Amino acid sequence: MLRVYDDLQKLYADHDVHTGQDYNTLMAEALGPGLAYATPAMFGVTATVLSSRRMIAYNLVQNSIDEAKGAARIQVIADRYAADTPLERKMKRHVGEELKHSRQFKDLVTTTGYGTVDEAVDQDAADEVLDFDDELKAFICRVHSIEIRSWSVLRMYQQVLGENEFPQLTEAALPVLDDIMQDEMFHVRYTGQQIDEWLREDPSLATTLLECMSHTNRETWQDIAAMTSWLAQHFPRLLADESGDVALPDTRFLVGDLNPPATLT
Ligand SMILES: [Fe+2]
Ligand SMILES: [Fe+2]
């Protein structure tokens, strides 16, 4: 089980980041007991998903899509609300790194033994990604909560793939995950530092931060539930026969919600 709050503090200490009392108290609460992605349930579901080559392939495709969506949204908010500020520079770097991750995840797909067929991007779906608005502080709180989760889930991937069930895949994936990890730690850090700075100026941001943290947590519990019920239906067949189509669950951080549609070959 992960101790996310302790690990977060260690991450800050290693980079000489000193967050204040308000930030620390709030995050200790938000990342305390009940945090979905720190549970053995989350680890178990992740390890089960990563035990099938086809599930790994879907997972990589899904991550590739999510990274690109995330990059597009950060770009929009940076242009709209952070122009000509030091935060804009960090957000632009963040955009570039998420786009790099998108390519890195996609490039790993072939190591699973599957390939992908690119399908035409549905313009409505693309517009939907950008059809949102968020005030800058609320957006950064949301990003912070999601980056802490990505960083935590990535550590699970490293642990599970490190067990080397698929040696060729592990050999290719671990250095890539390590590279992505360095960037994710930057994303966690700069958003945390920014929120800490804002909280010192205006403690009322606490409400927004806690709401974003608990939203991500609720979403993660729902994803675990959706994934588990999907596994109950499909997993035995997936292990026995790695071909044929399966309908994927609608979860946000494991697999599913493929948009544009991805076809594995
Ligand atoms: Fe990323
Ligand atoms: Fe990230």
Counting structural domains, the number is 1
Can you write the helix and strand succession as a string? Answer: HHHHHEHHHHE
Radius of gyration: 18 Å
Provide the helix percentage: over 70%
Distance between the termini: 35 Å
| CATH class category | Mainly Alpha
Q: Could you give the count of β-strands?
A: 2
Task: Give an overview in words.
The protein is mainly alpha-helical and 265 residues long. The protein has one domain (4-264): Heme Oxygenase, Chain A (Up-down Bundle), CATH 1.20.910. It is 71% helix and 2% strand. The protein has a two-stranded antiparallel sheet with strand order 1-2. Helix 7 (136-162) packs antiparallel against helix 8. The two termini are 35 Å apart. Bound molecules: fe (ii) ion (2 copies). The site of one fe (ii) ion has 6 residues, from helix 5 and helix 8.
Secondary-structure map:
Blueprint (H helix, E strand, L loop, with lengths): L3 H11 L6 H10 L9 H10 L3 H29 L4 H23 L7 E2 L5 H8 L5 H27 L4 H35 L3 H36 L22 E2 L1
Antiparallel strand pairs: 1-2
The structure holds fe (ii) ion (2 copies).
The site of one fe (ii) ion has 6 residues, from helix 5 and helix 8.
Summary keywords:
mainly alpha, two-stranded antiparallel ribbon, globular, binds fe (ii) ion
Summarize the structure.
Helix content is 71%, strand content 2%.
